């Protein structure tokens, strides 16, 4: 299923910080991990991911460094900072509250057809 860009965009920071909380990652690894965990529902392009990583870095939520990867190739790795971990906690609280309230609205309409809702 293809998701609305607004839905994905609103949760991108949450997903990236969550992955980085597990450990340092380079950009392509983040893209592949998001794709794999979402069963290909989230397929980010480099042109989408890197501007987000740069914004997170500018806010001090992630830092980056260069190091050799598994195959000896130099890669730019990203690491979550203490501020990024704190932001992740806030993002998680907001996400949980948001999804809980959406569920309340949806459950209030159970059993009603779309025609009777309008």
From TrEMBL:
Gene3D superfamilies on file: Winged helix-like DNA-binding domain superfamily/Winged helix DNA-binding domain
InterPro entries documented for this protein: Metal_resp_DNA-bind_regulator, Tscrpt_reg_PadR_N, WH-like_DNA-bd_sf, WH_DNA-bd_sf
Transcription regulator PadR N-terminal domain mapped to chain residues: 16-90
A family per Pfam: PadR
Source organism superkingdom: Bacteria
Stored SUPFAM superfamilies: Winged helix' DNA-binding domain
Protein name in the entry: Helix-turn-helix transcriptional regulator
């Amino acid at each position: 299923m293809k998701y609305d860009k607004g839905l994905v965009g609103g949760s991108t920071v949450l997903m990236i910080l969550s992955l980085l909380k597990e450990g340092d990652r380079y950009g392509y690894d983040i893209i592949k991990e998001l794709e794999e965990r979402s069963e290909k529902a989230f397929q980010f392009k480099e042109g989408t991911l890197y501007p987000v990583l740069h914004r997170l870095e500018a806010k001090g939520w992630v830092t980056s460094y260069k190091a050799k990867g598994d195959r000896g190739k130099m890669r730019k790795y990203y690491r979550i900072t203490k501020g990024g971990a704190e932001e992740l906690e806030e993002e998680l609280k907001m996400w949980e509250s948001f999804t809980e309230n959406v569920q309340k609205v949806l459950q209030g309409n159970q059993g009603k057809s779309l025609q009777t809702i309008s």
